[in-house]
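thought: fold this chain, then report.
action: predict
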Amino acid sequence: MLSRKEHEHKATHLPEEFRTKVRELLNSIYGAKFDKEQYEFAVFGMTFPSEVLLIVSLINKKDDNAAPVTYHVSSDLNENTKADKVMNYLVDSVGLFFDSYFEDPEWNDFFSKWEETDFKGNKIHYKITRENVGLTLMADQILEDDNKIH
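observation:
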């Protein structure tokens, strides 16, 4: 499970257009800091009635066994929340994380438990892992398909 909260409803994945824009933005800002032939950003996102989740991984596209650097960020949603505002500050938090990641060549500060912080006056939750989210989503799909058969 990628989300921070338990949900009764299935996730709605963020539109490909949004994920592509975020990926292009990250490449324009950080592309000079890594070999684009070897590395790329992967962007995932989903919404639930009470949560939005954005996940960005820097993956090694030449080595499937290399663990990515993955930043997960989540924020609560309610009927008064403006989704575009939430997405803007979540994307900004992704930038803040990758600023610090690329600034320190010895960076190695992973933690798999959700942390809460105030970011630009908004409460967010984040964690930094080595998870390959693309593989996690594929495994979830296989399990879901298998459950439909049985």
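thought: worth noting. Helices lie at 16-30, 83-103, 133-149.
final: tokens above.
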